[in-house]
Each structure stands twice: as C-alpha cells, then as structure tokens.
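Trying the structure run again after the queue cleared.
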Amino acid sequence: MSFRHPLLVVLCVAGLAGLGVHAWRANGAAPAPATKDAVAPGAARPVLVEVAAVAARTVIDDVAAVGTLVSNQSVVLHPEVAGRVATIRFRDGSAVRHGAVLIELDSAVQQAELQQAKAELMLAEANARRVEDLFKGKFVSSSARDEAASRLEVARASVALAQARLERTRIRAPFDGIVGIRKVNVGDYVRDSDALVNIEDIATLKLDFRLPELYLGRLAPGQALEVTSDVLPDVVFPATIDAIDPMVDAEGRAVLLRARLANDKERLRPGVFARVRVLVDRRDDVLLVPETALIPAPGQTQFVYRVEDGHARRVEVKTGARRAAEVEVVQGLAPGDRIVIAGQLKLRDGAPVMTAADRGGDG
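Done. Tokens:
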C-alpha cells in the first residue's frame, strides 16, 4: 500500500504547476480596453442621478372647502285664505315675472262683497254732496255734515277691505324666478297652511360653506374664489365672498361664509353639492422643488443634494407650503440651482454624479 503516497505527491505537484502557469498568463495578458464608464484607479465611480432646476414661480395660496348651492331667493307659496282652486296660470318649471298671478281661488263671494261695498260708497258720496250743499245754505248743522263725511270714509274703507279680500284669492309671484312643480290641481280645496308651489330665483346662486378659524384674518367680503361641481366637472364658476358670519362656531372652530355666483344659462341648480377654492393670497418669486428631492434628517431638518461641478453637495433647506407634489423652499437654495431628484440613496456629500444626459454625451 505504500506505493500510493509517491503517486499522490506527484499529482499535487502537477496541479500546483498548472495553477502557476494560469496565473502567469492572466497577469501577463494585455489590459481590457477602457469603456466610457471606467474610472481611474483609486477614483470614486460617478453615481447616475436625475436632476432638476429650482424654479421661481407665482403661487396662489388657497384653501379648499365644500358647500351646497342655494337660491338667491326661495319661497313656498301658501294661500292666505281657504278656498277652492279655480285657475292655475303657470306651467311647471317655467319662468315667471314679479307680480304675475299664478293661482286663483274661487272668488265669487269676495267679488259680491266688493260690488256691495262699491254701491254703498256711491250712496255715501251722493249723500255727502247733498249734505255739503245744505250746509252751505245753512239748512243743516255742522254735526250733520261731519256725520255724512264719516259715513263716506266708512264706505271707502269697506271698498278697500273688500278689494283686499278679493286680492287674497289671487296668489302672485313675489319676485322674478322659476316655479317648481305644483302640488295642487284645479278643483282642490286648500287651506291657508297648504303648500301650493315653490318659486326659486336662480339667476344668482348663494353658497354657504365653512373654513377653519385660522383663516379668519385672511378673508374679506368681495374676495375671489372658484366653484366647481360634479354636474359640470370641467367648468369653473368665479364667485366672491358675500358675507362672513360675525360669530365663530365654538365647537367646530369654524367660521360660516356665504358666497355669491352668477348662474349663467341656469346651468347650476339649488341643492347641488359644490367644491370651493378660496384664493387667500398671491405670492411672486416662490422657489419650488419636487417633493422627491427632499431627504429627512434627524432633528426635524431636511436637506437636498445640489450639483456643483459634477459633485453632489449636501444643503440643508427650510421648507414652506406643499402643493401638487412640489414643496416651497424658503431658505437654502437659489433660482436655477440644479438639485438631485432621484438616486439620492447612493449619494454622500461630495460624491461625483452623472446624469443620463451627461452619460449619453460621452458616446
């Protein structure tokens, strides 16, 4: 069995010799051709990043709220006296003018009372004229003259009262507007508590909404706002603040506001849900950067990487408002600064960087 040991030694020596030849060939081979991504020995490899320039723009500070549209004027008409509906003089959903007669109740009794009062007035007027002539001839006393004059005034009041009672059987439009769907028909007997029809003034609409009390100092009547609705999602209706409630809701810490907007072509209707964008301030030359550029740091601080001479420099920044995936920078940057917005996880302060445009330019 001893003859196996010299054979094992020979095999080991042959293997070591082969490894030595392979290592010599590898070390003596010509170096591989350099590529555009190659770096000098000992130099850090550039990190591929995406950059953007800091922009200075005009910013409109706003606050959003929701509300419900209401008519400029709205009323449900009720009869002032009980009676039977004799005539309906409007079509459901039609426009009516102020003072137009919409519904007439049966007024036969009231018309008869008016005729009786007018007849009594004619008699009182004739009697007053005769007494006046007699008084001038000194045939009657002044008391008789005064009594005749008093009867004349009573007759005139009776006519006015009968006319008022007759007028109460005619329901008129209190303002220009659009009538709704009537709730009665000809022949119905109605009481003074029964609803007849609603009428809405929608040429102008009101919008009541609430905002947190912290905005109270930045609100004023006449201030501009924008209104949108799912009814017309692509249309923005300009509006203005019409009134601010003097009392703040102590429970919700909110203030009630009323806006007014023109309802051209009556495209919006009362009761529609609406979104409000209140324009509270306009600021010029505001620096904005993408949210992705910000990197949080301990101590509630944030920083970005600014590209300077092909290297990333860490810069601490102070931020303001956030809006539409952008952040306002109030300190730390200047307009035109190039900052890293993607690839920051591989960076450190002073690291060389390269953009996709730089890389493409090398070829």
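Helices lie at 4-28, 108-136, 142-167, 356-362. Worth checking whether this holds up in the mutant runs.
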